[in-house]
Write a structure and sequence with these properties.
Blueprint lengths: L13 E5 L17 H7 L9 E8 L2 E7 L5 E8 L1 H4 L1 H7 L3 E8 L6 H9 L3 E8 L5
Antiparallel strand pairs: 1-4, 1-6, 2-3, 2-5, 3-4, 5-6
Length: 136
C-alpha cells in the first residue's frame, strides 16, 4: 500500500518573515512610533496570523514586507523575507508577491526552538504565498 502525503501550502510556497519586532531599523512611522511591526503584528489579538502583506525588493537581495492598504497600496513596512528567499532569481520571482501570515513564533511559545528563532531573528513568522508575482 502506498501512502500519499500532501502539505498545505506546498513547501515552495512558504516563506519566512523576520525582523518585525521593535528596533532602530526604520520600521516606524508617525502612526506607529513604537514600531510598525509591534503595532501591526504583535499587538493584534491573533498575533498577525491571517495578515496579508506585499513583498517588495527595496535593495539588491532584500525583500521587505509591507501591510496592504484597503486601496491596494503599500502601507507600513513590517519586516523582511529571510535572506535565502531574496537572493538571485528566487528574489526577483517573489518581488511583488502577496503573502499571508500563517504562524507567528512568540516569546511564550512552548517550543524552545521557536522562542530562539523569535529572539535571534527579531521576530519570526511563516507565511504562504497567495499570489506568486504581482507587479502592481
Amino acid at each position: 500500500m502506498t501512502s500519499v502525503c500532501f502539505c498545505y501550502p506546498p513547501p515552495h510556497l512558504r516563506v519566512i518573515i523576520v525582523g518585525f519586532i521593535e528596533c532602530s531599523n526604520g520600521r516606524t512611522c508617525n502612526s506607529h512610533p513604537d514600531g510598525c511591526g509591534n503595532k501591526l503584528v504583535l499587538e493584534r489579538h491573533d498575533s498577525g496570523v491571517g495578515m496579508v502583506l506585499r513583498v517588495r525588493m527595496t535593495a539588491p537581495e532584500e525583500l521587505a514586507c509591507f501591510v496592504m492598504g484597503d486601496d491596494g497600496e503599500d502601507g507600513c513596512r513590517v519586516g523582511f523575507l529571510a535572506k535565502e528567499y531574496a537572493a538571485g532569481e528566487r528574489g526577483l520571482g517573489l518581488n511583488g508577491a502577496i503573502v499571508r501570515i500563517v504562524d507567528v513564533y512568540l516569546t511564550d511559545n512552548e517550543n524552545r526552538s521557536a522562542r530562539r528563532l523569535y529572539h535571534h531573528n527579531r521576530g519570526y513568522a511563516v507565511g504562504e504565498v497567495v499570489i506568486p508575482h504581482n507587479n502592481m
